[in-house]
Structure formats: structure tokens, C-alpha cells
Amino acid sequence: MTGKGRISWASGATYEGDFSGNYLHGFGTFTGSDGSLYTGGWRMNSQHGIGRKQYQNSDVYDGCWKEGKREGSGRYAWSNSNMYIGSWKNGKMSGRGVMKWLNGDLFDGFWSNGRRHGTGCYRFADGGYYFGTWTKGLKDGQGTFYPAGNKHSARRKSSADKNGEKKKRLLVHSSSVNSENSVRPHVRRSHSEKISNTLLRGSSQTSHRTSSLREDSALDDISVDMSFDASSRYSDDDQSGLQGDSSVAFEREYMQGVLIKERVRSISGLSLKSKKRYKFHAKEVKSKSCVDIFEGHRRYYLMLNLQLGIRYTVGKITPVPAREVRSSDFGERARIRMYFPRKGSQFTPPHYSIDFYWKDYCPMVFRNLREMFKLNAAEYMMSICGDDGLRELSSPGKSGSIFFLSGDDRFVIKTLKRSELKVFLRMLPRYYRHVSQHENTLITKFFGLHRIKLKHGKKVRFVVMGNMFCTELRIHRRYDLKGSSHGRFTKKDKIDEGTTLKDLDLTYEFHMDKLLRESLFKQLSLDCEFLESQQIIDYSLLLGLHFRAPEHLKALLEPPDSLHKPASAQATLGGMTSQGELSIPPRGLLLVTHEPSSVSTEPGPHIRGSTLRAMSVGDKEVDLLLPGTARLRVQLGVNMPAQANLKVLQDKTDLAEVELFEVYDVVLYLGIIDILQEYNVRKKLEHTCKSLQFDPMSISVVEPKLYSRRFINFLEKVFPVAP
């Protein structure tokens, strides 16, 4: 079957349009046996390109398709008048998008797998606004609520309405297809992807092939989720008693949908500097991407060149037969050098960047490291060089380095100084041996070392590392711990949700299972001995905390009608019920015997490493069970459960201070970072002594051995033996 034609099946389904090689291929109209109607592009029996589908329940989707799935930019209108305009992936809302409900509520932000996930702005029908973050559909993290009638809300409403109308016009003009009135487009795969990337850059390009002519039904799963969202409307905490207040804003922090902190701020009394800070936070709804940087910006070219170089290097080294590394693989000649002219050459493709020179250090060593860390070459290349591109991050320290994050968050790319490059190359043979012998090492995992030289420009060196915070769970707090007190604090006015805090900002002690703690400090000692042997100092423990909402507070997530019952019928005060009985909430974390078939097997930087054993389950390998969330494999530095004890000074008397402890269930993520600072007595003696609060005249105290001893002693206080 080739050319134009019409075909019908015994089930009652019909197709009229283009054929090619016995496939539905081109442009055509398909009427399903269930009454659904699709008009648009086809590719080998699958909806592909731009098309319009009306489902049997009267839902309508206009937009981009990819191999039978809604993929790219599109508009979905439910029969109950709810509407979503934005990005799609694998048939579900993913990326940047706007959802508007029948009652007038509107959400503008990021989505994942059909649920709000990431930063966004929720506008209530009465004019109130909430700017914050969501995780799997629940508020999670810090945010700001502006009540209805607030001047800030009025300005944001006007801006949001304009943006919403602009997006709607753009999508209607670009993606709507009607079988009677529209001009028949030349549907090609590249064209649909181009439309997708142009409208909303956050859309993904993952392929999900389907060869069946029976298309999935309407978004039953999403419409259920949306109806629940519209009914709840966060009325329990966002709207009570706030009507008409135009002078205050509420800074809030949530934990899996539960409000745990709130601070009232006066907007009218804010200084000009504070107002600018509020304005900045409001604009953070849109994430910054390197793709959005003007092409004349130097960092944009660095990002493009880095992708070109890694694609070339991985493609060149992967076909080489696997073998053990040799001493020559670490030497001066272990380099791949290539010139990338813009017009292309015999060995390199043409590109849209500027001419540059590429150098790849020790390619065979890093190829073996990637295999040792169970990282597939194709996954590595697509993660860094895929369509999603790289995102630039702000530097968390004073190094002045540029940081990039891969599109799937699995890898961090950091620029290095020349001195750091020399230290790394010198220690690379022993680093390779160390990570080979200790699969549970907490030291940063390195995947590649490269250098770019722009024509008539200076040299820029990059190292590719694993992102230890690439996890299914949201990281609520981050700490950089060195075991020092000099200057190790963060000013309160500079703290936001993404801030990496320091030693003096940490007010928690973490109690964990006995065997988990023993495994942690055994590996810490081995890693510190290695760094000590390489004369490395000034390294840190990067600690990430995921807090679980207290179980006795999760009643706040019940349906809205239960939120208005008398408090005496449902509340517990101080752990006592209304009848005076002691209420002990169940644990939010549960260790269970490890079952390989039950845990997530998604690839990530932590895929290598053994499953840990826990005393609480009889010295067996364990998984971490998070009720209603996930089941995760417990590894060293990954998915480690603990109890965080927070000291709270409640009252002061003439005799003593009364101390209380707030206890939280937390999941820990940790690793050793900044391992490229070499000890040098002549250059770093005074600075190091000052940071460690020692007498500079005592040379011995700044030796790496004493640094590691101080480092571990400090961590023993952070992770004390559980009573």
C-alpha cells in the first residue's frame, strides 16, 4: 500500500490518508472503534508529528506526537473544561507547563510524570499566589504565599495572565490541526521536534515506540489527579484568615505536603534591597539553562564544545577492546588531541560553535573507571550530549569555578585550575587503585578529564563527576563539613533552599543503626588514609538531608472535608490524645530485608556499591521502605536512614538551660568532595593554621595526618553512637 488510500477494519476502525510501504505514513485521519478521532501526522503506523485527537469522552489534545505518544508541546482540554498547555513526555505532562482548572485556579511551573514537580507558581481563583517547590504533586521545601488583595499578587496576576494568553496563542497557532480547515503540513520527525524545542525548551526527546493502531484512551489517570488537585486547592493553610491582607507575605516550609515552618513578613515595611530579593525569588520559577544564554556568551560555546568533544572521545575509545590499564595509560602520551573547525574536517563534524582545540586526558583510564562504576558508554554520552543540554549552576564556594549539570541531573561538570589538574593527574594511578579495591568508597567518582582551548583564547579544563544528590527524594538541606569553626557559617540573609550550609550552621546530631555507623566510619578512615598518603587537605564531607514528615502530622493531608472537623476530635497535643492516652506516632522510615527485585534499578552515579547490613533486622542486607513513596536499596552514603536530633533552647533560668530535642526521620546522602587541594607548607601554612584555629608556629599541626584526624573526630560528634 503506497500513496493515498482508505482502509477499514472489522472492528469498525477506519483510516484515510497517506500510505508508504504498507504502513500508515504521512498525513491522515484515523477513526477508532471506540469513537475517538485523530487527524495529523503518521510514521510507520504510529502518530508522529503534529496532530489533533478527540477522545471518546470528548477530551481533546492538540500538539506534538512522537511514535504514538504525546511528546513535546501541546494543549490538552478535558471535557470538564480543565486545560493544560505545555510540555509532554511519554504521554504525560513533563517539563514546563500551565494548568488551569474550571474554578479559576492556575498553576504555572514544572511537571514530571503527570504531577507538579519542581519550582512553580500556584494562583488561586481569588487572587492569592503561592511561589514554591513541589515533589511528586506535594509542596516540598520553601515557598512564599501572598494573600488575595496583596499588591504583589495583583502585579503577578497581570503578568501571569499576559504570559498565559501569549502561550495559548502560540500553541494554537503552531500545533492545532483540523481535518477540514487546516492546511496539510509536511510532517517530518525533525520538524515536530523542532516545533517542540522552540515552544518549550524543557521538553524531552525520549523515544517510546508503539506499533499498535489502537491508541490509548483519554488521560484517565491524569484527570483523576487533576480533579483531586482542584478540590483540595490547599485551602487548609493557604487561604484561612488571609482575605484582604495587602501588607503581609508568608514564608513557609513544607515537608511532603505538611507545613512545618511559617514566618510572617511585612511587605510594606521591606527595604528596597529586600523588595529586590523578593522579586528575584519570584522569578526563580523559570530555571536557567545554558541553552538560553546568548550565543555570543563565552560559556555557551564552552558548553557546546564540551558536548562535541565528549561525543567524539567516547565514540573513539568505546570500540577499543577492553583491557587492564597499564602504566603508559597514565603517562604524558596518554592524550587524545583534536582540532574542531567550524566547517568540519575529515575527523570531526561541522558545528555551530567556534573553532576550538580539544584534549582528552587518560582516555583508557576513565573508560575503565566508567565501566567500573557500571556506567554504560551510550548512557554517559546521551546524558551529557543529549537534546536536553547542560544547565549552568552557581558556584557554591569561593573557587570561581564554573559548574554545569547534565540534563538528567546525573553528572556535574566543573572547571579546574591548572594546579588542580596537576594534582589530579599525579594522584590518578593511586585513585584508580583505591576505587578498584573499595567499591563503597565515599570519595567523589570521576568519569572524565578534558581541556578546551578556544581559538585565540585561554585553556579551560573540565572534570566530569557524579552528582551524589541525583535521587528520587528531594534534598531539603545541604551541608559542607570540614571540621573547622573559623568562618564556617552562613549569613542568614543569604540562606535559601539551595544554599550549601557549613559546620556552624549544623544543629543536628544523627543517630543510625549500629552496623550502618560502623560501615560508615570504617570507610571514612580508609578514604582519609588514602587522601593523607597523597598529601591532600581541605577536603569536605558533603551531606544531604531528606526529611520525612512526622507521621502524626500527615493527617493534615486528608481530604478537605476532614480539615474542618473540630480540633478536639482529631488533634493530639504534646503526644496526648483528647482522651488523655499517650500517642506514639509510627516510624516514618522502615528497614526491611533486601529484595533485589523490589528496589529501584534506575541507573545513577550510585549504582556501584554493596548493599549494607543492619543490626535492627538481624545483620542482614536491608532496603529502606518509605511508606507511600518508594523502596530504596541502602548503600554507603546513599539512602542511609537516621534520626536527626535538633537541640532547641526553650527556656533559660538562673540555674541552667532547659534543653529539648526535636527528632526527625531523615535519609542521608554523603560523600567526600574537594580532594584536589594539595598540602604545601610554604604557600598554605598560614591559611591552613588559621582555618584550623592552630598556632601558625606549630608546623606539625597542618600536616594531612592531623587534618584527617580532626576531620574524623568532628564527624564522630555529628554521628554519635546511638544511646
TrEMBL record:
Keywords: ATP-binding, Kinase, Nucleotide-binding, Repeat, Transferase. Residues 146-215 are annotated as: Disordered. InterPro entries: MORN, PIno-4-P-5_kinase_pln, PInositol-4-P-4/5-kinase_C_sf, PInositol-4-P-4/5-kinase_core, PInositol-4-P-5-kinase_N, PInositol-4/5-P-5/4-kinase. Its EC number is 2.7.1.68. The keyword Cell wall biogenesis/degradation does not apply. PROSITE patterns: PIPK (PS51455). It comes from the Eukaryota. It is an enzyme of class 2 (transferase). It catalyses: a 1,2-diacyl-sn-glycero-3-phospho-(1D-myo-inositol 4-phosphate) + ATP = a 1,2-diacyl-sn-glycero-3-phospho-(1D-myo-inositol-4,5-bisphosphate) + ADP + H(+). Residues 296-719 form the PIPK domain. Pfam families: MORN, PIP5K. Residues 195-210 have a biased composition (Polar residues). SMART domains: MORN, PIPKc. PANTHER family: PHOSPHATIDYLINOSITOL 4-PHOSPHATE 5-KINASE 8, PHOSPHATIDYLINOSITOL-4-PHOSPHATE 5-KINASE. This is Phosphatidylinositol 4-phosphate 5-kinase. It comes from Coffea arabica.
